[in-house]
Design a protein that fits this description.
The chain has three helices and 51 strands. It is mainly beta. It folds into three domains: 29-222, no CATH class; 240-438, no CATH class; 451-532, Sandwich (Immunoglobulin-like). The strands form eight sheets. Strands 22, 24, 25, 27, 28, 29, 32, 35, 38, 40, 42 and 44 form a twelve-stranded parallel β-sheet that branches. Residues 1-22 and 446-464 have low confidence and may be disordered.
């Protein structure tokens, strides 16, 4: 009797505490790699959809998707394995023991904690449903719905307090219909039924079916980023001396029209470099081939060979539809024909500032006017590479990020373009027209000037004298080096040869602001400002 009373007391005490549910996430297997998949049925798209993750069917066809940031798998080994893994995933979800039985009307700013939820009737989701991880990033939410499931327009699943889309599962025994503007989180499985995703739907997760068509229309669907897993992309090339060049040709004229603002060196190893104003170039202008351009040409071939030999992760199947708000993640991509870039391209590093993107184009590249390469979630221009087998034409007022390595093709950069990176070709002319180009931070010049020791001293204002003290570390770079002085209009007014490691230049100048440029015989430069009071 005493023992029974103790058991009863313990049961009453335990019942007084909140129920804590620790559901275990099922094994996704290869289904984790798919954003859209059916074991048996068609997978089709209309409109412009942005998909990150594989797309496919094990019995049917995938149609009209345009470029997908993933691999298309129709009726192949990968789709067969995914179909098998999907059955295993369904079995695990079927065996999950329900912990709660909510009403079939989800949403309305309802908040649910981790658990296994079972609903037997036709179910709808409206307004906002909050899934609360309560600070546990491993919190698992499983919804087992025994009939069709639909959402109202602009319904929203919100993950709060550590909840992750990778730990949310919807097992539905009927049609899944996501209305316009819906935002869903988690892996959706329609068992022996179709999935419909309407215009403006966002899915952070997956839409899978054991047997049924999947149709999408102008949606955004992407597989979740796993906790602790970050894409790094391919190995970046060693730019070597090419890092210091904003514009370069291994063999061809490099010319500029209008006023272009360049931060980085400009030159060619065969031909002439013309039309660039030294006042607007922060770096060296190499008017004729020299030691520096020769090194750059050799290093450029090494960079090209590195990029050319990288294995392909993802082929973008529709080169003439490139851009169009496509989102890419750190990988090596292939466009296997001449490519037309329209509108915007988003490069998403997923929070990894060191992630590398390589886009290999087997043909010419042409952009529309106002085309944009946009860097998001930590992407850096210095980690973006364009390997183009043909001519490059960047149209007016485009915003371009990354280093362009053009093999055997001309580069044409038109009015108003902003280039954050480089435009380099192994063989072909380079032409710019009123652009702004800035090299990324990789340049490590072998220049001899020690900037902190170059000083500008303003003497007694009454005699209007100015002085520059120049210290050159290596005496071998003295011969042929010179100091050039410009007035405020950019007109050259004086040139002084450098004859010693430490040189002091003094001059009496009218009141005003002047510029100077130190040009060493190895092609490196340093600019500064003079003030005469």
């Amino acid at each position: 009797m005493k023992t029974n009373l103790q058991h009863l007391f313990i049961a009453v005490v335990l019942a007084s505490f909140p129920v804590m549910v620790f559901a275990q996430a099922p094994e996704l297997g290869t289904t984790a790699d798919f954003a859209l998949f059916t074991s048996n049925g068609a997978v089709s798209n209309s409109g412009i959809s942005q998909i990150t993750g594989n797309v496919g069917t094990n019995s049917g066809a995938s149609t009209a998707f345009g470029n997908v940031n993933g691999v298309m798998h129709d009726n192949d080994g990968a789709s067969a394995l995914c179909a098998s893994d999907l059955l295993g995933l369904c079995l695990e979800l079927d065996n999950a023991i329900p912990t709660s039985f909510p009403a079939p009307l989800l949403g309305g700013r309802q908040k649910l904690n981790a658990g296994v939820y079972s609903i037997s009737a036709v179910t709808s989701l409206n307004d906002t449903l909050f899934l609360d991880g309560q600070g546990d990033v491993n919190a698992v939410f499983i919804f087992k719905i025994g009939a069709a499931f639909s959402t109202g327009a602009h319904a929203y699943v919100s993950l709060i307090n550590g909840a992750k889309a990778n730990n949310v599962f919807w097992k539905i025994e009927g049609l899944v219909s996501l209305a316009t503007g819906t935002t869903m989180r988690g892996t959706i499985i329609a068992n022996n039924a179709a999935v419909e995703m309407n215009t403006g739907t966002t899915l952070e997760g997956r839409a899978l079916s054991t047997a049924g068509a999947i149709t999408v229309d102008g949606v955004l669907a992407y597989t979740p980023v796993e906790a602790g897993v970050s894409l790094s992309g391919p190995a970046a090339p060693d730019l070597a001396s090419t890092a210091c060049y904003a514009l370069f040709s291994g063999n061809g004229e490099v010319t500029n029209g209008n006023v272009s603002i360049i931060k980085g060196d400009v030159g060619t190893n065969v031909g002439l470099t013309t039309g660039f104003d030294a006042l607007y170039v922060t770096g060296s202008i190499h008017p004729i081939p020299d030691v520096s351009t020769n090194a750059c040409a050799a290093d450029l071939l090494n960079v090209y060979n590195h990029l050319n030999l990288l294995p392909i992760d993802i082929e973008l199947l529709y080169p003439v539809q490139f851009g169009r708000n496509l989102v890419l993640t750190p990988h090596t991509y292939l466009l296997n024909a001449a490519t037309t870039f329209t509108d915007s391209l988003y490069l998403n590093a997923e929070g990894n500032a060191n992630a590398v993107f390589v886009i290999k184009i087997k043909g010419a590249l042409e952009t529309s006017t106002y085309a944009k390469v946009l860097l998001i979630n930590g992407t850096q221009a210095k980690n973006v590479y364009w390997d183009v087998e043909g001519a490059v034409d960047i149209n007016n007022y485009s915003q371009f990020n990354g280093t362009i390595i053009c093999n055997n093709g001309a580069i044409n950069i038109n009015t108003g373009v902003t280039l954050n990176g480089r435009a380099l070709t192994t063989d072909g002319a380079v032409r710019t027209e009123g652009i702004t180009a800035t090299i990324t931070s990789d340049c490590k010049p072998t220049g001899i000037v020690t900037p902190q020791t170059n000083k500008v001293v303003v003497f007694n204002p009454n005699d209007r004298r100015v002085s520059i003290v120049i210290n050159i570390d290596d005496a071998s770079d003295i011969n042929g080096s010179k100091l050039v002085i410009y007035n405020s209009l950019g007109i050259q007014i004086s040139t002084v040869p450098i004859k010693e490691k430490t040189t002091t230049f003094e001059a009496e100048l009218p009141i005003g602001i002047y510029l100077y440029k130190l040009i060493l015989n190895n092609g490196s430069t340093q600019s500064g400002k003079l003030i005469s009071k």
